[in-house]
Amino acid sequence: MARVGLTAERLTRAGAELADEVGFDQVTVSALARRFDVKVASLYSHVRNSQDLKTRIALLALAEMADRAADALAGRSGKEALAALANVYRDYAREHPGRYAAAQLRLDPQTAAASAGVRHARMTRALLRGYDLTEPDQTHAVRLLGSVFHGYVSLELGGGFSHSAPDTDETWVRVIDALDTLLRNWPPPPTETQG
């Protein structure tokens, strides 16, 4: 019998909160059962296992970030849109480090195709059209932006910049400036002799 008040959505949200508190890697069905002071078995009518719970948290995080990105990008283009999108990722990671880590979870292709990750890709590609990038350069630029945003945020969250000047906010602004310059001056494809 399912415990009154427990639903898959409530467990997912509680799991996301737990991830922010103790780290995404520490989230398990057992840890969640302790949080609700229930037996582990009582949660299995709502989530299949810890991997299912983690997938649900990842989908929640992707949806939350996509909603934030859509709001931030509305009415913006060019460098202003680029900064808005970058700040969504950085701010979300700072506010919700466990959920941000969850958003990096590798999803199976079917789940990924139905997730808010598709919205992220569409928004990023729309931003890049403002820089007159077409395929395959759009795909290269999507990968570049994702790598830079995630790399910077991960290093910052891990304390990688905490012992040096200048301030990380100043560096972040310079990173966005550099990305904007690169996107406005996207290099041509390499020739056979360059590669």
Automatic annotation (TrEMBL):
Pfam families reported in the protein's UniProt record: TetR_C_33 (PF13305), TetR_N (PF00440)
Keywords, ordered alphabetically: DNA-binding, Transcription, Transcription regulation
DNA-binding region, residue intervals: 28-47
Segments forming a coiled coil: none
Domain HTH tetR-type: 5-65
SUPFAM superfamilies: Homeodomain-like, Tetracyclin repressor-like, C-terminal domain
Protein name (record): TetR/AcrR family transcriptional regulator
Organism: Streptomyces olindensis
